């Protein structure tokens, strides 16, 4: 998975490299080396550090785990082509362009990059692109062809525990999507502190990684996500997402992984 | 067409927001467009204009009225908790109504003067403050394109300092939220619904083309009133 590849900062030794050279030069001077040696040292100094080649951090555009027409008729191929091919790709390319100019920000995984560029509420310019790259990856994986229906087993039980019933959860999720002002996302998250599921609304590029909550599914409520298919009818889009698109399989996997970090109670060990 | 213009002129007295009193409670209504939906083509498509006006702006008006009604009920009961909860809905929907009411007046078909640069005091002020019209357009386009998410880009005048300003606001925040003395002259909606069906994700193209239907006459009138 290219997105999570760490790049080691092995080549940006420019400034520190040259200062080391200066130090070693000084010590040599006190030892009174011969003239030839001094000339050589000076030459190396003037040439500058050899290994100051620029390193680019590259994040790649990950494809959705299905073909672009696989979500028809609920999310059209045209929307996927625009949304993934133009918007998502644009975020990746712009992020890479920004990172080209900023040496201090490479070597991070995407999750780390988001937290660092969020800068505790005073986001750096890279934050928007980084977060939107992550958000869209998560979103494509939150859907599947033949999605919708209901979760089963543990996830369903947890939803029923935290929302009363699946119907109530579904209602609350759709309500959240309708009452979000402006651009943003609706999330089902597992709250670390409260050890329970909750629905979260975020604006623009913000995601639950900021608040250290664990996202389980997401719905993109930026207008570009639904306008071509549903125009202004947010309600229809949200309902279709719940009925036909949301991948409870992905949610189950994420939930299982989340439980490595959040203790939701006694494990149900089957008795032989 | 003439009747529509008449209605608009009459409602200008109520700031063009078109409200009427009913049982002591103010309700707002969707103002009519002073031109046909297709009149701004090809800069803005008729489909967008119709959706934008009949669906989006109407939704702001409806929800604004609903929030006001709920506010009225809560204030009568002394329910401060509910009042506080309603504030964001009021700002969002009220702002949406205000902003779009100005927006429709900011646009005009080419044959009614759309795109024609301002004469008079506003034209002079623009040249004086920004150097030229091109610089102003460039600045507004840059800021509009750079705006993350949804919002507006404005040309406004500070009525105290008598200076022109270019500002952006997010979501449906009105210009006055950036400064109590700011009066909007021109606003460009950069929410995706304002251009997506026609320009898709290429917001800069939308911004480049909208200047062909900008109604500088209206902006000039507002400016002349604030800076006589």
TrEMBL record, chain A:
<dbReference type="GO" id="GO:0042644">
    <property type="term" value="C:chloroplast nucleoid"/>
</dbReference>
<comment type="similarity">
    <text>Belongs to the iron/manganese superoxide dismutase family.</text>
</comment>
<keyword id="KW-0408">Iron</keyword>
<dbReference type="InterPro" id="IPR019833">
    <property type="entry name" value="Mn/Fe_SOD_BS"/>
</dbReference>
<keyword id="KW-0809">Transit peptide</keyword>
<keyword id="KW-0934">Plastid</keyword>
<keyword id="KW-0150">Chloroplast</keyword>
<dbReference type="InterPro" id="IPR019831">
    <property type="entry name" value="Mn/Fe_SOD_N"/>
</dbReference>
<dbReference type="GO" id="GO:0004784">
    <property type="term" value="F:superoxide dismutase activity"/>
</dbReference>
<feature type="domain" description="Manganese/iron superoxide dismutase N-terminal">
    <location>
        <begin position="59"/>
        <end position="143"/>
    </location>
</feature>
<dbReference type="InterPro" id="IPR019832">
    <property type="entry name" value="Mn/Fe_SOD_C"/>
</dbReference>
<dbReference type="InterPro" id="IPR036324">
    <property type="entry name" value="Mn/Fe_SOD_N_sf"/>
</dbReference>
<dbReference type="GO" id="GO:0046872">
    <property type="term" value="F:metal ion binding"/>
</dbReference>
<dbReference type="InterPro" id="IPR036314">
    <property type="entry name" value="SOD_C_sf"/>
</dbReference>
<dbReference type="InterPro" id="IPR001189">
    <property type="entry name" value="Mn/Fe_SOD"/>
</dbReference>
<dbReference type="Pfam" id="PF00081">
    <property type="entry name" value="Sod_Fe_N"/>
</dbReference>
<dbReference type="Pfam" id="PF02777">
    <property type="entry name" value="Sod_Fe_C"/>
</dbReference>
<keyword id="KW-0479">Metal-binding</keyword>
<keyword id="KW-0560">Oxidoreductase</keyword>
<feature type="domain" description="Manganese/iron superoxide dismutase C-terminal">
    <location>
        <begin position="154"/>
        <end position="252"/>
    </location>
</feature>
<protein>
    <recommendedName>
        <fullName>superoxide dismutase</fullName>
        <ecNumber>1.15.1.1</ecNumber>
    </recommendedName>
</protein>
From TrEMBL, chain B:
<feature type="binding site">
    <location>
        <position position="189"/>
    </location>
    <ligand>
        <name>Mn(2+)</name>
    </ligand>
</feature>
<keyword id="KW-0496">Mitochondrion</keyword>
<feature type="binding site">
    <location>
        <position position="100"/>
    </location>
    <ligand>
        <name>Mn(2+)</name>
    </ligand>
</feature>
<feature type="domain" description="Manganese/iron superoxide dismutase N-terminal">
    <location>
        <begin position="27"/>
        <end position="108"/>
    </location>
</feature>
<comment type="similarity">
    <text>Belongs to the iron/manganese superoxide dismutase family.</text>
</comment>
<comment type="function">
    <text>Destroys superoxide anion radicals which are normally produced within the cells and which are toxic to biological systems.</text>
</comment>
<dbReference type="Pfam" id="PF00081">
    <property type="entry name" value="Sod_Fe_N"/>
</dbReference>
<keyword id="KW-0464">Manganese</keyword>
<dbReference type="GO" id="GO:0004784">
    <property type="term" value="F:superoxide dismutase activity"/>
</dbReference>
<dbReference type="InterPro" id="IPR019831">
    <property type="entry name" value="Mn/Fe_SOD_N"/>
</dbReference>
<dbReference type="InterPro" id="IPR050265">
    <property type="entry name" value="Fe/Mn_Superoxide_Dismutase"/>
</dbReference>
<dbReference type="InterPro" id="IPR019832">
    <property type="entry name" value="Mn/Fe_SOD_C"/>
</dbReference>
<feature type="binding site">
    <location>
        <position position="193"/>
    </location>
    <ligand>
        <name>Mn(2+)</name>
    </ligand>
</feature>
<keyword id="KW-0560">Oxidoreductase</keyword>
<dbReference type="GO" id="GO:0030145">
    <property type="term" value="F:manganese ion binding"/>
</dbReference>
<dbReference type="InterPro" id="IPR036324">
    <property type="entry name" value="Mn/Fe_SOD_N_sf"/>
</dbReference>
<feature type="domain" description="Manganese/iron superoxide dismutase C-terminal">
    <location>
        <begin position="119"/>
        <end position="220"/>
    </location>
</feature>
<dbReference type="Pfam" id="PF02777">
    <property type="entry name" value="Sod_Fe_C"/>
</dbReference>
<protein>
    <recommendedName>
        <fullName>Superoxide dismutase</fullName>
        <ecNumber>1.15.1.1</ecNumber>
    </recommendedName>
</protein>
<comment type="function">
    <text>Destroys radicals which are normally produced within the cells and which are toxic to biological systems.</text>
</comment>
<feature type="binding site">
    <location>
        <position position="52"/>
    </location>
    <ligand>
        <name>Mn(2+)</name>
    </ligand>
</feature>
<dbReference type="GO" id="GO:0005759">
    <property type="term" value="C:mitochondrial matrix"/>
</dbReference>
């Amino acid at each position: 998975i290219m997105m999570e590849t760490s790049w080691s900062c092995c080549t940006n030794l420019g400034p520190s490299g040259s200062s080391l050279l200066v130090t070693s030069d000084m010590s040599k001077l006190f030892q009174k080396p011969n003239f030839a040696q001094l000339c050589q040292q000076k030459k190396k100094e003037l040439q500058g550090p050899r290994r100051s080649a620029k390193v680019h951090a590259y994040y790649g555009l990950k494809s959705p785990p299905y073909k672009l027409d696989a979500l028809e008729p609920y999310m059209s191929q045209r929307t996927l082509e625009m949304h993934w091919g133009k918007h998502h790709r644009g975020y990746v390319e712009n992020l890479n362009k920004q990172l080209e100019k900023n040496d201090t920000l490479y070597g991070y995984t995407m999750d780390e990059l988001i937290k660092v560029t969020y800068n505790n509420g005073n986001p750096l310019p890279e934050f928007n692109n980084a977060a939107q790259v992550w958000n869209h990856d998560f979103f494509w994986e939150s859907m599947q062809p033949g999605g919708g229906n209901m979760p089963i087993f543990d996830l369903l039980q947890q939803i029923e525990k935290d929302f009363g019933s699946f119907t109530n959860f579904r209602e609350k999720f759709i309500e959240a999507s309708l009452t979000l002002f402006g651009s943003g996302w609706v999330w089902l998250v597992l709250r670390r502190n409260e050890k329970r599921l909750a629905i979260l609304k975020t604006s623009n590029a913000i995601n639950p990684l900021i608040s250290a909550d664990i996202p389980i599914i997401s719905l993109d409520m930026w207008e570009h996500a639904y306008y071509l298919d549903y125009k202004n009818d947010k309600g229809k889009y949200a309902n279709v997402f719940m009925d036909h698109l949301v991948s409870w399989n992905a949610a189950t996997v994420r939930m299982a992984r989340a439980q490595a970090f959040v203790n939701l109670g006694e494990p149900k060990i089957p008795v032989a | 067409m003439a009747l529509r213009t008449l209605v608009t002129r009459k409602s200008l007295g109520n700031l063009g927001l078109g409200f009427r009193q009913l049982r002591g409670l103010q309700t707002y209504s969707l103002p009519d467009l002073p031109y046909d939906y297709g009149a701004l083509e090809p800069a803005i498509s008729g489909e967008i204009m119709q959706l934008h006006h009949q669906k989006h702006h109407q939704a702001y008006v409806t929800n604004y009225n609903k929030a006001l009604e709920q506010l009225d009920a809560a204030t009568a009961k002394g329910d401060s908790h509910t009042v506080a909860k309603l504030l964001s809905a009021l700002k969002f929907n009220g702002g949406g109504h205000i902003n779009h009411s100005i927006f429709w007046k900011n646009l005009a078909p080419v044959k009614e003067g759309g795109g024609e640069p301002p004469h008079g005091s506003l034209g002079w002020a623009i040249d004086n403050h920004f150097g030229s019209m091109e610089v102003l357009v460039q600045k507004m386009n840059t800021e509009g394109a750079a705006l993350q998410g949804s919002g507006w880009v404005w040309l406004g005048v500070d009525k105290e300092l008598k200076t022109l300003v270019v500002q952006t606001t997010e979501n449906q925040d009105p210009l006055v939220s950036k400064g109590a003395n700011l009066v909007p002259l021109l606003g460009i909606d950069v929410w995706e619904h304002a251009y997506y069906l026609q320009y898709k994700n290429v917001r800069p193209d939308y911004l480049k083309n909208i200047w062909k239907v900008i109604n500088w006459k209206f902006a000039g009138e507002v400016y002349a009133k604030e800076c006589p």
